[in-house]
Design goal:
single chain; alpha/beta; UDP-galactose 4-epimerase, domain 1; 2 domains; three-stranded mixed beta sheet; binds uridine-5'-diphosphate-4-deoxy-4-fluoro-alpha-D-galactose
């Protein structure tokens, strides 16, 4: 079955494309390469185009049965200082894509949403019925798209899954693709940059949180576990239903635990220093992944150590170190 992977030259989209191919689907990557990388789309048909280019989309939508939408700006901090960029691409661009889908015969769409739609939840672990109250423009834009999907689903029969990712990390076991962000802000690749001398030190953003060791706790999920859920999501859509699902492991790890795992696996010390809290960081975010487990018969398979070792395998092949 042919699937259009919009944003397939990015980090999570490229892993989804590889997993689709391994499972016998025929992914076509659609990406404007603004933050995506042609090298992550190697081995795939790549259509270079923007989500707002309705004519280009119309032509390629004729050739597919489903769409996966990964194309979005995804820096929380940047969204605070430049919300215009985020609303323009993630909401206006996203709705343009949605309209192009509606104008085609395709009625199945899988959307990359985020735990940022929940903001700072009152209760952990986070279930899907937790009130959606984002605390930054990035989360606002993802929630806006979720609302559009829900309305289009009710009105026009579009079937969708909104997958709310927790902390995507790790790299494909082949070593051929992985995370490539510029600038890098995520914890694990930032620690690798410190190891490789590409930044002076990893800053630990806060050690006075109400968590066991004082650093923030997150639910790190391997990018290929995410990718596998997307493939199962296509089968779910064939049952004619629509919903939102958390994708996480259900287990939290603190920043210090992640650093220990990195030091153990790489055999290198992470140059680090304490820094103030990063604005907008909740103390703890952990998923209740039971809805995805029940509806997809899916469960995250890979541990934190596997996340770190695959990410290091990829990062140590990039650039100088
Ligand atoms: N951290 C550091 N130092 C760094 C980078 C991160 O201490 O240099 C800490 C952060 O404070 C946080 C944890 O490591 O506690 C993870 O931070 P990341 O930047 O890797 O990831 P976030 O949890 O900020 O972001 C993720 C997703 C976003 C999503 C957000 C919701 O990547 O898309 O969760 O809170 F919006």
């Amino acid at each position: 079955m042919p699937v259009l992977v919009v944003g397939g030259a990015g980090y999570i989209g490229s892993h989804a494309a590889h997993t689709l191919k391994r499972r016998g689907y025929e992914p076509i990557i659609y990406d404007n390469l603004s933050t995506g990388h042609a090298e992550l789309a190697k081995g795939f048909e790549l259509v270079v185009g923007d989500v707002a280019d309705s004519a280009k989309l119309a032509a390629v939508l004729k050739r597919v049965d489903a769409v996966m939408h990964f194309a979005a700006h995804a820096y929380v901090g940047e969204s605070v200082v430049d919300p215009r960029k985020y609303f323009h691409n993630n909401v206006l661009g996203g709705v343009a894509l949605l309209n192009a889908v509606l104008d085609s015969k395709v009625r199945k769409l899988i959307f990359s949403s985020t735990c940022a739609v929940y903001g700072i939840p009152a209760k952990l672990p986070i279930r899907e019925d937790t009130p959606r109250l984002p605390v930054n423009p990035y989360g606002d834009t993802k929630l806006a798209f979720e609302h559009a999907l829900e309305a289009y689903g009710r009105a026009y029969g579009l079937r969708f899954v909104s997958f709310r990712y927790f902390n995507a990390a790790g790299a494909d076991e082949s070593g051929g693709i992985g995370e490539l962000h510029s600038p890098e802000t995520h914890l694990i690749p930032s620690a690798f940059e410190a190891i490789k001398g590409e930044r002076p030190a990893l800053e630990i953003f806060g050690e006075d949180y109400p968590t066991p060791d004082g650093t923030c706790v997150r639910d790190y999920i391997h990018v290929n576990d995410l990718a596998e859920a997307h493939v199962l999501g296509l089968e779910y859509l064939d049952r004619g239903e629509s919903t939102a699902m958390n994708l996480g492991t259900g287990q939290g790890h603190s920043v210090r635990e992640v650093i220990s795992s990195i030091e153990r696996i790489t055999g290198r010390e992470v140059p680090k220093r304490m820094a103030p809290r990063r604005p907008g960081d909740p103390a703890e975010l952990v998923a209740d992944p039971s809805r995805a487990e029940e509806l997809l018969r899916w469960k995250a398979q890979r541990s934190l150590n596997q996340i770190v070792s695959t990410a290091w395998n990829w990062a140590s092949r990039q650039g100088k170190h």
